[in-house]
Design brief:
The chain has 3 helices and 2 strands. It is of the alpha+beta class.
Length: about 90
Amino acid sequence: MLNKLNIKYSLYGYQPKDVRDRYKYVIYISGTEMLERWMDLIGTKNPVKLTRYLVWKKFGFCPPHTTLQQRKDILNDKLDIYSIGS
C-alpha cells in the first residue's frame, strides 16, 4: 500500500530479547516530505501524535517531554513555546 501511495519506507525485522515474543517488523518512514505525504494521505486520530505534528508544523520543532495539554496550549497561544524548559 505504501508503494502505491508513493511513500518511501524501510522495513526491518527483529527477534525481541524475550524469546516468548514473536518476530517483529517495523516500518520506518523518514524525512519531511514523507511525513507530509503520510499526514496528507493517511493522517492520525491519536491526539498525542497529532499535536506533536501540529506544533512541529507551526513552529518548525516540537519541544521534547511536553504533555498533551502543553501542546494544546501552545497551539491555542496560551503557552509560549520558548518558555518550555526554562
